């Protein structure tokens, strides 16, 4: 019943925040912190009491609506794949709520953040294909408002329309595919659909319909244009949620639906995925080296890392798939943390231009420690979560296709190049006194936002077996479709 409780808490928190007057700041802060904090605790309880010896969906909740006019039934549940995305969402939303507590538009931000959390948790737990599609598209609405209304610059309108049309248009074929599946089978239930065998032609067409939607979310080349623009124009919490959770929707969609429902087509199209992913990795990494906007560097870094994840998914082996999930989780913490740090700088100096910053190690030592730790995590230094994820997924793809594995491994070198270059320019070059006259290190609130992210990065990196034990049986069950 915990999933039920979590969704009810968020629903009533959303209603409460909508009703309460925007001048009642203390009440708004209390409700938002308590509700999202309880969701983090309950998500942790779900994680702690998850049965890692079972490959079935757990904490199942089923809703039936039977009447003369309506006959609907849909279920919610979590397995070893979705439970980590569920926890990641709840933690990042809580940290975003903490970040905006002193903002002028507090009520509006809280409404949007709680709406996003409710939608995302439904996406990661729902076992109904149509309901998944509805909320998969519904997430565009609050994100559209966050970027288009509360973005930082004039280009935000262009950015938000790119984001909206790339992701919405990419999903039109997904809707066609979902409706075809219902017309063919008469059910949207995922567990029922997993037992159905599509013809090879149906699989090839349906897989491609699903692919366009998920590839736009990751994003893969050439569907990536919207992401750097959206990141640059979005406020800090918008960038954190884009990188930390929304990019994972494409990964989750590939694993949960494309591989599960269309195994033949997934194998058939795997060379196509390798080709697009390798182009995306190399292009994004080289482009990141040329950027002078702090957000754009991390945005292109995200494209490269998420396409590595895609390669691991289509390795079709335990190592690659488990590495992909760990790397997705790691990227949520690392990229989310980097965007928080960039947002902290922007709130002080109102610029993201790289050449305005330098020597922060002398003037903001605590900030610099977090920046350095996240940088070494971004380049997958041993002991960090990114190392565990990248090592596993690269090993997995190398077993399947040696050349692809070698080319993909160049991303490690390129990632080190732009990450260390960025870190050196911001922390260790000369102090730019003309641009940054006042130096204010992290506040207590900012410290408590960054600290849990760093803890999880190193906890996953040092004790990966704890997390892999959750995933293993669910991945094994998935891979039986490819035997």
From TrEMBL:
The keyword Phosphoprotein does not apply. It holds the Pfam family Proton_antipo_M. Its main location: membrane. GO terms for biological process: ATP synthesis coupled electron transport; electron transport coupled proton transport. Keywords: Electron transport, Membrane, Mitochondrion, NAD, Oxidoreductase, Respiratory chain, Transmembrane, Transmembrane helix, Transport, Ubiquinone. It is an enzyme of class 7 (translocase). The chain crosses the membrane at residues 6-21, 28-50, 81-102, 109-127, 133-152, 159-182, 204-227, 234-255, 267-286, 298-319, 325-346, 353-381, 401-427, 447-473. It comes from the Eukaryota. GO terms for cellular component: mitochondrial membrane. It catalyses: a ubiquinone + NADH + 5 H(+)(in) = a ubiquinol + NAD(+) + 4 H(+)(out). Core subunit of the mitochondrial membrane respiratory chain NADH dehydrogenase (Complex I) that is believed to belong to the minimal assembly required for catalysis. Complex I functions in the transfer of electrons from NADH to the respiratory chain. The immediate electron acceptor for the enzyme is believed to be ubiquinone. Core subunit of the mitochondrial membrane respiratory chain NADH dehydrogenase (Complex I) which catalyzes electron transfer from NADH through the respiratory chain, using ubiquinone as an electron acceptor. Essential for the catalytic activity and assembly of complex I. Belongs to the complex I subunit 4 family. This is NADH-ubiquinone oxidoreductase chain 4. It comes from Ochromonas danica (Golden alga). The gene is nad4.
